[in-house]
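Bench notes, afternoon.
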Amino acid sequence: MGNSVDPGPLIRKYSQACVERNGRRAMVISLRRIRSIAAQTGLLPLDVEISCLEKSVIPMRYLRNMGTIGIDGQLKLLRSRVVVCGAGGLGATMLELLARQGIGHLVIIDNGRFEENNLNRQITCSEADLRKSKVKVAAQRVKSINSAVAVTPVNRFMDCDNIEGFIKGADVVLDGLDSLATRLSVAGACDKMKIPFVHGAIAGFSGQIMTILPGDKGLAAVYGAASQKCTYGVEAITGNPAATPAIIAAWEVQEAVKIITGTGNPIRNRLVFLDFAECIMEEIPLV
């Protein structure tokens, strides 16, 4: 925080008591007051939110997160760095949810521009965004949802030479890719750098998800060497309906939240496959 003013007195001044629906009392503070404290102290809004939570004062935007992850969990999220690989159907929805959940730093990697065929599913794509950079639009969307979140847009193609630089310092890396070969490269880099990797993929009315922690068998156990020969995933053939990437993306975000906060059990050493057309969910063990 450098030479910034201590926000404690202002936090105490501006916080107020709140009675939640379950009857529990909490001290909360509004977005307007957080912005005011940031302006008066020279702190970033993110740092003010962290200071509030450290004093058991809950920013009102996170009040509904408390029942699942609590103050300690929210602090972990605000202090975390999550890398989202791809800003398309999967990635865009993940970014939307991560921003609302309160991830402190989001890194967005994609070198694409919006095309008309993206309009059916990519939540950051509107008609006015056609031909615009996906990461630029996604970064603006994140800041419009949660101005406290730090965003690093990376308008670059990912390859074996630059992946490690992009994911360095991440607490979790999320898969929003459409290339199996790139997925395998990212997963390999995450394993080498001991970073959890959450894999998600879609194909028409089906999708799959798994969490890979360092040392796990991971994608090699699912795809094998064949993934290196594929430029695009099977979704290029089966299509990308609007709801399928939204469902898988939401599940990927839940996995990231669980990993960062230590809540629940991740989908580890198993692949969950979902067939939404037939309403089937299968779990495939990998060990």
